[in-house]
Amino acid sequence: MQFYIHSMTCSGCARSVTKAIQSVDANAQVTVDAPHRRVQVLTTAAQAEIAEVLAEAGYPAEAL
What is the dihedral of CA 47, 17, 10, 29, to 10 degrees? Predict the structure, then answer.
């Protein structure tokens, strides 16, 4: 699944986003493209669950 995260603007944000996603699925594979504000996630967790944890972390995400 892929997300666009408007508020992800730096590598620190990218680390926070990755940490939030891995709090739901520790084995999730997260690929972050901070300059384009996109995240690709390979996980067994539901898309809604990932979106919810991102919003709670301050990074509301739009599914692509």
Answer: -80
Model-level pTM?
A: 0.91
Pick the CATH number of 2-63 from 2.60.120.380, 3.30.300.90, 3.30.70.100, 3.30.1490.20: 3.30.70.100
The pLDDT of residue 51: 96
pLDDT, position 1: 96
Per the structure block, which two tokens stand in for 17? Answer: 């986003």
The residue type of 22 is: Q
